[in-house]
Amino acid sequence: RLIQPGDVVFDVGANVGFYTLLAARRVGPDGQVIAFEPLPANVRTLRTHLRLNTLRHVTVVEAAVADGLGNVRFAPHASNAMGHIDDHGSVAVPVVSLDSMIDGTDFRPPRVLKIDVEGAELRVLRGAERILRETKPIVLLATHGTQVHRECCMLLRDAGYALEPLTSSASSVEETDELLATPCR
Fold first, then answer.
1. What is the pTM of this model?
2. Closest C-alpha among 133, 43, 132 to residue 141
3. How many CA atoms lie within 13 A of 117 on its CB side?
4. Are 97 and 128 a contacting pair, CB within 8 Å?
């Protein structure tokens, strides 16, 4: 319900594309989905899913997302959904910030931003501070860890967002690890 035809959606931590595919269907051919995924095996499966579903308005960015540019170490996990940035990781991957993705590229800023990155959520948000401040996308955020959750909530509130739990079982933002952040108008 949050994604409309013609929207731009950034899927940060796309994995094999479950949310990418849903978003691509919702934005339609006039919209655009940018799927960020650093693990080569996940990227291959994601591209297969896009091909099988004939979705041509999705761009895959083979990189981790954080608050800088360059390369980082990444620790894959037995579950392809749980790898994360780690100084001792066995895989080197490129890293981008979301603000850098709209500087000097053809990407429009997102209207919806989904983030699920196994602990690097604060780094992603810090690397998107200009987007958050200037274009105010709706943010769907999964946090991993109490301290990261607290800091992400503080950053989003300071950027002018209202927060609510995405899970119906949570009665407050503090009791959940899945948030909906909407700009205060």
1. 0.91
2. 132
3. 31
4. yes
